[in-house]
Amino acid sequence: MTHTLPGTDIAIESLPKISLHDHLDGGLRPQTIIDLAGEEGIELPETDADALGKWFADQSNSGSLVEYLKTFDVTTSVMQTAAGLTRIAREFVEDLHADGVICGEIRWAPEQHLNKGLSLDDAVRAVQAGIDEAVSAIEAAGDKIWIGQLISAMRQADNGLEIAQLALRHRDSGVAGFDIAGPEAGFPPSRLQDAFDLLASEFFPVTVHAGEADGVDSIKSALIDGRALRLGHGVRIVEDMNVHEDGDAITVELGTVATWVLDRGIALETSPSSNIQTGAIGPKRVLAEHPFDLLYRLGFSVTVNTDNRLMSDTTLSKELALLVDTFGYDADDLLAIQINAAHAAFVSRADKDDIIDTLIAGFEKI
């Protein structure tokens, strides 16, 4: 299925795009899960690819982040061997490329993939092998894609320093940044202070899940304790705003945290469908309630992402199409959002310039 810009025959899939927030264990192909589960003797809730894909989407529509995260027990169960991780990473990049992504960051938590004897370093190398295979094939076909790993520490596991050291060991072989994931409420970034201190001392970029399942204090901790350059989701930044409506006129007063995020250009890694599924936005759980448009019009560095393509039954093109349909965006808006993402990507200045040139050239073709 393709998604077109209204009033045109332009497929959003054909436009170059940037993906900053996309979890490896949330982007498996259903058939791959079935294949790997069969090899490992793992029972699944469904054994038909279409039915399994539907099961993931249905289970993820609870409105609770805690319930949403339970679906990952299934995906991580088939991600415990080097061969499995390599296949999944290769297919992940292939699927990004098929959707028009020219720069993607793949976040995942190696500590969740050690049940069958892999070491942390083995796991990172296995994922990188799959990335390298896909990138080489894409380049051999005449295209180019920038891909980096984001190594996540599970915020509830209290081993952030070890995972930060892991990320640093692989910074010259594919790892582009560090993240913390898992249950946000009750597990502030300050719990991983030693990890963030080490990463800051080594000038290593950090993004932090914040402002999804918890509010402004979580965002504040990500900025102060984590020195976050980006916020994973970050949509609850609106809780630090007072919005006044008088007819068609809207006045917005920003609090100190929201002002800091706006003035410093700290990117918000929003994921519209996921934000609805996990209850990160308004009670009606409809896209019209999503603060994306308000944030975009206020000048925040908003980006659009999938979070977990399997659980949300989505692609980056589909997420953009949803915003287009809801808020009336056009190609200029989509390009502006992609340039936000390019500026926020954890790549070199030279690569960033190349990515932006590729974005502009791709949109000029339409």
Write the layout of secondary structure elements.
Elements: E1 17-23, H1 30-40, H2 49-59, H3 65-70, H4 72-77, H5 82-98, E2 101-108, H6 120-140, E3 146-154, H7 160-169, E4 175-181, H8 193-201, E5 207-210, H9 216-224, E6 230-233, E7 241-246, E8 249-254, H10 256-264, E9 267-270, H11 272-277, H12 292-298, E10 302-304, H13 309-312, H14 316-327, H15 331-344, H16 349-364
Parallel strand pairs: 1-2, 2-3, 3-4, 5-6, 6-9, 9-10
Antiparallel strand pairs: 7-8
Helix pairs in contact: 5-6, 7-8, 15-16
Structural class by secondary-structure content: alpha/beta
Q: Into which percentage range does the β-strand content fall?
A: 15-25%
- Biggest sheet architecture: 4 strands, parallel
Can you name the CATH architecture? Alpha-Beta Barrel
